[in-house]
Amino acid sequence: VLRADGTPFPGLYAAGEAAGFGGGGVHGYRSLEGTFLGGCLFSGRQVGRALG
After folding, report:
1. Where would a tag sit more exposed on the chain, N or C end, judged by fewer CB atoms within 10 A?
2. pTM for this entry
């Protein structure tokens, strides 16, 4: 999660749809159902790894 000046908030993460996957985010509103699941799983895994 970024501040208004573009710097990250230490220890604050966004995953899944909050990170822009699904609902039109990265893939657009015309994406096929399920195409956003990979991004959700990947971002969730990265958050889990960062939290230890």
Report:
1. C
2. 0.46
